[in-house]
Amino acid sequence: MVGKDSLRSKIIFVVLLMLVLAFVLIPFVTMISSSFKPNQEQTQLPPKIIPDNPTLEHYQGVLNPDIFPFLNYFKNSLIVAFFSAGIGVVISIFGSYSFARLEYTGRSVIQRGVLMVYMFGGVLLVIPLFQMISKLGLFDTRTSLVITYVVQTLPVSLYMLGNYFRTVPESIEEAAIIDGCSRLEVIFRIVLPLSAPAIVSVFIYAFMIAWNEYLFASVFINSSSLRTLPLGLNQLFYTQHYVWGRMMAASVLTAIPVIILFLSVERFITGGLTFGGVKE
Q: Least enclosed by CB within 10 Å: which of 81, 218, 222, 246?
C-alpha cells in the first residue's frame, strides 16, 4: 500500500508539473513560432507550432528603422533599466546593511515604513509622482523614469538584501573590525563578496521591472525618441505596419536581453552562500 501511495503521489506530482510547464511555456512557444510564420499562416486552422514556410521577414521589418525604430527603443530601455537597477542596488546595499547590523533610534519604524509603499498601487502614485517630476523639470526625460523605478523597486530590494545580510556570520565582521577594518571596509571586503548571489538577484529583479514597465513610462515620456520598448510595442499596434508576426518578432527581441542577463549571472545566484568566508 505504501508503494502504491508513493507511486500515485509521484504520478500526480508529474502531471501537475507538466500542466504548470505547459501553462508557462505555451505562450512563449506560440510567440516564437508566430514570429517565423508568414502572414498567411498566422490564422491557419489547426494552428501549427512549426511553420510550413519559415521566414525572417518579420524580424527584418522590426529592425527596419523606417518601419519600427526598434534599436532606438532598445537603447532607451537598456539605459533606463541599467541605471535604475545599478542605482537601486547601491542604495539597497547601504540601506539594508544599516537595517541588518546598525542600531539607531527609529530603525524598525523606518524599515516597516519602507515596505508600506507597497500598500499603494502604481496607479495611486502616478499623480503625485507626476507633480514632483514636473516641478523638478524632469518631465519627458530618461531621468524621470530612473528615479521612478528606483523608488518602485527599492522596498523589495531593501527587504531582500536585509534578510540576506543577516545570514552573514557577525563573527566574521567582528574579526575584521578587530583587525583594523572600518565599517565601510567590512562592507566592501566581507559582506559584498559573501552576498554576491543576493546582490545579483536584486539587480535582475530591478532590471526586469524597469525593462518591462509601461504605466509610468506612458505618463512621463512624450517624445517618440525617448520611448522605451513597452511604449514602442504598444505604438506598433496603431501603425499601418502592424501584423501579428511583426509583433511577435519584436516581443522575442525584447525578451532576449533579460534571458542573456539571467544566463550570464546564473552562477552567482547558484553559488555558495558563504564562499570565501573561511580562511584556509
A: 222
